[in-house]
Design goal:
The complex is a heterodimer of chains A (394) and B (366).
Chain A: E1 7-8, H1 19-26, H2 40-60, E2 67-70, H3 73-91, E3 97-101, H4 106-119, E4 122-126, H5 136-145, E5 150-154, H6 168-177, E6 182-185, H7 197-200, E7 204-208, E8 219-223, H8 249-264, H9 266-287, E9 292-293, E10 307-311, H10 317-326, E11 329-330, H11 346-350, H12 355-359, E12 361-365, H13 372-391
Parallel strand pairs in A: 1-11, 3-4, 3-5, 5-6, 6-7
Antiparallel strand pairs in A: 2-8, 7-8, 9-10, 10-12
Chain B: E1 2-6, H1 11-22, E2 26-33, H2 51-64, E3 68-72, H3 74-90, H4 97-116, E4 121-123, E5 128-132, E6 138-142, H5 159-163, E7 165-166, H6 174-183, H7 205-213, E8 222-225, E9 231-235, E10 262-267, E11 272-276, E12 283-293, E13 300-306, E14 314-320, E15 324-332, E16 340-345, E17 348-360
Parallel strand pairs in B: 1-2, 1-4, 2-3, 4-7, 8-11
Antiparallel strand pairs in B: 5-6, 8-9, 10-11, 12-15, 12-17, 13-14, 13-16, 14-15, 16-17
Helix pairs in contact in B: 1-2, 1-6, 3-4
Classes of the chains: A alpha/beta (394), B alpha/beta (366).
Chain lengths: 394, 366
């Protein structure tokens, strides 16, 4: 079993580090120096952090001062939602509503539920269509019902489970009419589709290192200068006083190298990976004729290039995952599992699928190391695995 | 063989999984998620079925070096075990949910799924021994460690289930298993044994039933009477009682003879609990229904029966007809309908039945 070659198709969970990022990170691991210190070692570390900030700013079309380093995507989402909400409500106590899609990641949904429970925030989770795309009219109606009461709108750039790209431009246009700030969780989007902060018009954007070929434990919230954000982590006042905590110089260096590379290669990546993904989807459906794709169709560009989210009627997603895992093929049921207990995906439920359909799904997510051989392995395994999983359900 | 090792997060199932690997099987560990809302660290709950247990099981699988998954059987568990538990108490009976879980979940839902997925057997950390008899049938016997023997809660398994079961601990003592866990570097080696019903987190059966039964309870209070019908106290729900119970009756008036009183009868419809002296609990005839046989169905045998987990072996004559008639050679006390009577021939488990009725020894008749 141990000599089995691993076919890794769970890049949406995490993707291998790019060698350039490993090099950038390890170059600093043996060097001393707290970026906040005033001596030469501190200055040297500070310089690395600031150069990294500039690299990321250039890659994402923002100003260096708008990049706030965090411990990752979850912290960046929490900072954006809680921080912007508190600042906006302090400025005007009528702002008690936050609008978001019903298919956000738990790093957005759970802070919102927490705000609703503890701070009386009226959270409105907006519907999506059967492809997993925000119903823009619902957002418009919700905003226009009482624009002055909206503290914030949060709409992910691309969904992590089914890969559907969200109409961020339209969201920004609606919010801008009323001066409402927009946050977007772009964790899955950076490096996969074009993401330009300033041009997008959003006010805050979340990204994370380990989804773009950088290290774990580092991410950033890009925050427009004009948006006030109340800190949620207090201490030494690092990162514009928005996010305290000693700055992780080596991780940030690796993160910046990964972002730079991913953005530079994005166009080529998208073409190459989408071709592999299309091939995988087509051939899996050939092998298992009643399998079907969830989310946006392949050919219309409304989907992350690496995402193949497939339903296999009559199977438990868990069984499929386990059987594929035993053959060295690694994928995901795409559902949240805090205790390892799979719950039916809130994303598929929001897309109008029933709990049964939500349970028989698998997410294959391709990435920068994916190959034709990976696709071949899935295509070869899938029919017997599905047959087996169906037998287990009898 | 390809084996599914059911791992609770405790020491026994961890060592059982390790031994299955050592026996040359291709083992995959699973933890059963049985609660719809597993208690987390945050809620401070302890006991079985917590996220902590799931993590312990996962760490044990890491140490043993086997793949590990969580199987969500919470819906099945709720339907087949928890609902049954509530219904039985509501009806004035005393169920054993561990037997139900073995019959319906571990060696049914889990086993079926395992077989469907291409596995050959399910291994658990139960203390019982399997061997193949002269007739080719798989026999289940009591464990070597009589103090830990769990054949009672497995008495509901039929031949098909036993053929696909592995109990790697049946030949060992608990002390040996703990020592072995420590030697294998399993961090659960000194984890305390679980005792209470896993889904009643703090062991407060009555409180749990009161909350969960709600409007489904036949009553939430009534009278406690003595054998003459005189009211001697009151209670807050018949489901809180079991035949033979002595504690928690809170009777205002002491009995005339000054001796302790025990629950003799539970009448859910009228909400009446009858109490009386211990000798009135004596029974020597039991009727069992819903029998489960490990192998060949016996017609008649003289052997022993066990009436509760870790209960004593009682010599008995058993006759199997439409129901299972059990004649105890010496009377037993505090036997409640709903309990399982597991029938043994020596150390071998013959089968089991759920007690539906008991009859009492008439004074002087024997």
């Amino acid at each position: 079993m141990s000599d089995l070659k691993t076919v890794y198709l769970d890049h949406a969970a995490t993707t291998p580090m790019a060698p350039a990022a490993v090099e950038a990170m390890t170059a600093h691991l043996l060097e001393v120096g707290n970026p906040s210190s005033l001596h030469a070692s501190g200055r040297r570390a500070r310089r690395i952090v600031e150069e990294s900030r500039e690299t990321i700013a250039q890659a994402l079309d923002c100003r260096p001062g708008e990049v706030v380093f965090t411990s990752g995507g979850t912290e960046a989402d929490n900072l954006a939602l809680k921080g912007a909400y508190w600042a906006r409500r302090t400025a005007d106590p009528r702002r008690t509503r936050i609008l978001a899609t019903s298919i956000e990641h738990h790093a957005v949904l759970d802070p919102l539920h927490w705000l609703a429970e503890t701070a009386g925030v009226e959270v409105e989770l907006l519907p999506v269509d059967d492809r997993g795309r925000l119903v823009v009219d619902a957002l418009r109606a919700s905003v226009e019902r009482d624009p002055a009461s909206v503290a914030l709108v949060s709409v992910m750039w691309a969904n992590n489970e089914v890969g559907t790209l969200q109409p961020v431009d339209e969201v920004v246009a609606i919010a801008a009419e009323h001066g409402i700030p927009v946050h977007t969780d772009a964790v899955q989007a950076v490096g996969a589709v074009p993401v330009a902060f300033a041009r997008s018009g959003v006010d805050a954007l979340t990204l994370t290192g380990h989804k773009v070929g950088g290290p774990f434990g580092v991410g950033a919230l890009v925050v427009r200068r004009e948006l006030d954000v109340t800190p949620i982590v207090h201490g030494g006042g690092q990162e514009r006083d928005i996010r305290s905590g000693t700055i992780d110089t080596p991780a940030i260096a690796g993160f910046a190298a990964a972002v730079e590379l991913a953005v530079k290669q994005q166009a080529d990546y998208a073409v190459r990976v989408a071709a592999l993904r299309d091939d995988l989807v087509r051939r899996v459906i050939e092998a298992v004729p009643d399998a079907h794709l969830h989310g946006a169709p392949l050919d219309l560009g409304g989907r992350l290039p690496g995402n193949a989210h497939l339903g296999f009627p009559g199977c438990e997603g868990d069984s499929l995952l386990m059987l594929l895992d035993a053959r060295g093929i690694e994928c995901s049921t795409g559902s949240a599992c805090s205790a390892g207990v799979p719950q039916p995906s809130h994303v598929l439920l929001a897309m109008g699928r029933d709990a049964e359909a939500a349970r028989h799904s698998l997410r294959f997510s391709l990435g920068h190391t994916s190959t034709r051989a990976d696709v071949d392995a899935v295509v070869e395994a899938i029919a017997p695995v599905v047959e087996r999983a169906r037998a287990a359900r009898r | 063989m390809r084996v599914i090792a059911a791992m609770s997060g405790g020491v026994d199932s961890a060592v059982a999984a390790a031994r299955a690997v050592e026996a040359g099987h291709d083992v995959t560990g699973i933890h059963l998620a049985l609660s719809r809302n597993p208690a987390s660290y945050r809620s401070g709950a302890r006991g079985c079925c917590t996220i902590e247990d799931s993590n312990d099981a996962r760490r044990a699988a890491d140490v043993i070096g086997i793949p590990f998954y969580v199987w969500d059987l919470s819906d099945r568990f709720h339907e087949d075990v928890v609902e049954d538990f509530m219904d039985e108490y509501a009806a004035g009976r005393t169920p054993n949910p561990c037997l139900r879980c073995n019959e319906k979940i571990k060696f049914a839902a889990v086993l079926d799924r395992a077989l469907g997925l291409g596995f050959d057997a399910v291994a658990t950390g139960h203390y019982a021994q399997l061997r193949t008899g002269a007739d080719g049938l798989v026999e289940m016997h009591r464990a070597v460690d009589h103090g830990k023997d769990q054949s009672y809660v497995l008495g509901v398994l039929d031949q098909a289930q036993l053929r696909h079961s592995l109990f790697p601990l049946g030949g060992s003592t608990k002390a040996d298993v703990r020592r072995e866990a420590a030697e294998r570097g399993l961090l659960v080696a000194d984890k305390p044994d679980s005792h209470d019903i896993c889904f009643v987190a703090d062991g407060d059966n009555a409180g749990w039933l009161r909350e969960k039964l709600g409007d489904r309870a036949p009553n939430h209070g009534g009278s406690i009477v003595d054998e003459s019908g005189a009211v001697v106290g009151s209670h807050t729900g018949t489901y809180a009682f079991t035949i033979g119970q002595r504690r928690g009756l809170r009777l205002g008036r002491p009995a005339a003879d000054g001796k302790p009183r025990f629950v003799l009868d539970i009448e859910p419809v009228s909400g009446t609990v009858t109490v009386g002296p211990r000798e009135r609990l004596a029974v020597d005839r039991l009727t069992g229904v819903g029998p489960r046989w490990c192998g060949t169905v016996p017609r008649e045998l003289t052997g022993t029966v066990q009436l509760r987990a870790h209960g004593e072996e009682l010599p008995a004559r058993v006759r199997v007809d439409e129901a299972v008639d059990i004649e105890l050679l010496d009377p037993a006390y505090g036997i409640a309908p709903g309990q399982a009577a597991v029938i043994y021939d020596g150390t071998r488990v013959v089968g089991s039945a759920t007690i539906s009725a008991t009859s009492r020894v008439q004074a002087g008749q024997r």
